[in-house]
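Worked Example 4.2. Consider the chain below.
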Amino acid sequence: MLSHINVFVLLLLVTKATATGCNADNCLRAMSQAPAENSAFCSSYTVTPGWGPTNTEVAYQCSSSSSRISSACSCYVTPTTPSSTSTSIPPTLTTTTSSPTPPPPPPSTTSSTTSSTTSSPPPPPPSTTSSTSSSIVPTTTPCARNVCFSTHFNSQSVPSGDIIWLSAVFKPKFSGPLAAVSFTNSRVLINTVQVSPTPPDSFIELDSSMQSCGTVQFVNGAWQAAAPLPGSGDTFLSAVSIPVPSGINWASAQVTWCGDVTAPGEIDVQIAAAIYTSCSMSMANPEACETHTNYHAGVPTGCLNNLVAGGTGGGGSNWSGSLSATYPVCV
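Applying the procedure from the previous section yields the following C-alpha cells:
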C-alpha cells in the first residue's frame, strides 16, 4: 500500500504530468515509491541521459526505456535555465545639505479677490475754528515781511527822559464780514540805530457788523484791538513808548519802523510820533479807530495831559503827531 507521502507525491507528479506533458504511467508510479532517491537520479539523468536507474523496480516498470525514464524524470525535475550573474553595485552615498527654510512671507494685506474694496482715508478731524461771527481766525502767513515805514522828526529838541509815542495806523482796502490784521516782529531805528524797547506785537480784528470801537488793550505784552470794517477813517496798527536817552538830540531825526504785516488784502499804512513827558504802554489806552470820538486812531487817551511839542507834532491838540506818507502794503 502506498504511504500517505507517496500518494501526495504521486498526486503532485500526476498534476505536473498533466500540466507539462510527461506521461503518468507505471514508470512514473514506480519512481514515486522512492522520491528522494529517484529525484537525485533524475537530476543527473536529465543532464546526462543514457544510463539506467539503480532502483530495480523503476527499471522494471520503465522497461529500461530511456524515453519513459526521461518522461517520468521530467515530472521530477524542471529544467532550469542558468541564472544570470548579477554584479552588486554598492549604493551611492548621497549627501544632502539641509538649508534653513526661510520663514513664510507675512500675510498680504491686499485682498486678491476682484470683489475687494479700497478703503477710504479717514475723514479729517473736525475743525476747531468756530463759524460764528464772533470768532476771527488771524491769517498766520505774513503778506509782507520786514516792510518798513519812515518819517522825520521836526526841529524841536526832545529833552532826555521824555517819551516818544510812536504809533502806526492803517486803512483797509478790502471788504468782507470779518478780517484779521497783525504787525509782528517789528523794530524801530532812529538815525539808523535800533532803539529800545522792541515794539509789542499787535493783533486787530475787523468786523463789518461793528459800528464803533473802543480803546486798544495791552494784554500779556501785546496789543489787541477790534474795529469796524471798513470803518470811517484810520484803524490802529501798533504803538510803542520810547524813552529819550540822556545826551541824545533827536531833533530832525529820521525814524524807520520795520516788521511783518499780515492781512487778507491791501492796507495803507502811516506812522506818526508825539512827545509826552510820561506815557507807558500799560496806561496809554490808545484809540482803536475814529468812529466815536474826536481822537485819531492811535492817540494815547490815557496820557493826554502829558503832551508836549516835538516828534512830528507841535503839542496842543496834536495828540498823535502828523502822519507820514502812505505806504501801501500787501498789494
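The helical segments are 4-20, 26-31, 35-45, 56-61, 66-76, 281-284. The longest helix spans residues 4-20. Compare this with Example 4.1 before moving on.
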